[in-house]
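Reply to dn_fold:

You asked what the input looked like. This is it:
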Amino acid sequence: MSQENMRASDADREHIVARLKTAMDEGRISLHEFDERLQRVYAARTYGELTPVLTDLPAQRSAMPKVSLDKGGSVPTWVKIMWTPWVFVNALMVVIWLATGKGYFWPFWVAVPWGLALLIPTTIGVITERDKQRKRPPRDPNQP
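and this is what came back:
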């Protein structure tokens, strides 16, 4: 029995739906076309009926950014986006402090509370993403 004649599971259908959502978000298909394809996905019983839904779409890139903060890992984009304003605003505060005579180090009152406020969601996000990465089963390249 070829794989095309094998029954598709609900998880297989959800995987196809996720790829269709990504294609719609990228502007590759319209909302109307998404709806038509969605109906075909949920009506499909076999892999042979599922795969034509994606044939004209490019292969999906990894949707999840790498969250490995171990040695040699990269910092996730969302962390860079959260912390970039903090870095630039505090650099500006230090420049102003230097330009005004280096008295009492008042930039502390901008940097520390804001930094602590950013540290909490950053820590929670990194831990959550690591747990997701660890729990995710390896993807079978032969599955749609």
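The radius of gyration is 24 Å.
Hope that clears it up.
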